[in-house]
């Protein structure tokens, strides 16, 4: 299995880069990387490079970056906005939606959301989500990582729906439109997927989204947890968008 290493975009200006912190600790102490070993480095924005370890110390390592290859961006983007669920389940959403290729993740503060991140922990929580995304990209061979926005109030989210070609809101309350027809009838280059917290969006939030141009959809008759609904919807939408582009995609 290829060992993958994340390097932030600003670290690619020179042919050599220094890896430090927890990632270096894992490479040195757990994977036992030595000078001369080969790695695959990626920047989270579609660029990868074969790299050779030049030097290993107690706390960091120096790598030489080889030829760089950039993967083309898809002709669509998926933004996932989710009411923050309890018990750390947003960590799971970040991990698995990174694996599924989501482009942007927005943690939403909604009326029925019970999770409130203390002011003193906001930056630390956001940093943890970013690190979870990086680890998912390393393990799963993802070259593009999602942008993870700060916690966003619903009132801010609903005013930005016009920025998307297609905004979808998953709810427990019908009437629904089919995802297949919604995606095939429109030029869905920028897709926004909204999933509520435990207890769903309120009726007022749903109506506000619909008035702003969103379309309501459902995922069956069972009541799904937020993380299950989010990942099921992302999978379905990704599949339908690929099918619309044809087998070459």
Structure commentary:
There is one protein chain. Strands 6, 7, 8, 9, 10, 11 and 12 form a 7-stranded parallel β-sheet that branches. The protein has a 5-stranded mixed β-sheet with strand order 1-3-4-5-2. The model has no long low-confidence stretch (mean pLDDT 92). α2 runs parallel beside α3 (122-140). Helices cover 32% and strands 25% of the residues. It has 249 residues and is of the alpha/beta class.
| Structure summary, number of beta strands | 12
Summarize the biggest pleated sheet.
Answer: 7 strands, parallel
Quote the beta fraction: 25-35%
- Please compute the radius of gyration using only Cα atoms: 20 Å
Order of helices and strands: EEHEEEEHEHEEHEHEHEH
Kindly state the mean pLDDT as a whole number? 92
Structural class: alpha/beta
List the quaternary state of the chains. single chain
What form results from the Cα inertia axes? elongated
Q: Which consecutive residue ranges, at least 5 long each, have pLDDT under 50?
A: none
Distance between the termini: 26 Å
Total count of helical runs of at least 4 residues? 7
Task: Classify the helix fraction into a percent range.
Answer: 25-40%
């Amino acid at each position: 299995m290829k060992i993958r290493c994340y390097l932030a975009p600003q670290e690619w200006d020179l042919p050599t880069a220094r890896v430090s912190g927890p990632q270096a600790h894992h490479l040195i102490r757990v994977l036992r990387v030595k000078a001369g070993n080969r790695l695959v480095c990626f920047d989270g924005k579609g660029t990868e490079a074969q790299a050779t370890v030049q030097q290993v110390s107690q706390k960091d390592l120096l790598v030489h970056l080889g030829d760089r290859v950039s993967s083309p961006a898809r002709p669509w983007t998926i933004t996932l906005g989710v009411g923050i669920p309890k018990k750390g389940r947003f960590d799971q959403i970040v991990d698995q939606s990174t694996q599924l290729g989501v482009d942007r993740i927005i943690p939403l503060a909604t009326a029925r959301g019970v999770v409130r991140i203390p002011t003193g922990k906001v930056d630390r929580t956001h940093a943890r989500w970013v690190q979870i995304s990086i680890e998912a990209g390393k393990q799963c061979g993802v070259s593009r990582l999602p942008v993870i926005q700060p916690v966003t109030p619903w009132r801010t989210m609903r005013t930005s729906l016009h920025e998307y070609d297609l905004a979808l809101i998953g709810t427990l309350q019908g009437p629904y439109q089919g995802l297949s027809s919604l995606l095939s009838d429109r030029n869905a280059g920028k897709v926004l997927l909204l999933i509520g917290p435990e207890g769903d969006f309120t009726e007022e939030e749903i109506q506000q989204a619909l008035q702003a141009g969103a379309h309501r959809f459902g995922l069956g008759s069972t009541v799904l947890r937020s993380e299950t609904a989010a990942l099921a919807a992302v999978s379905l939408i990704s599949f339908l968008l690929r099918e619309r582009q044809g087998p070459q995609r």
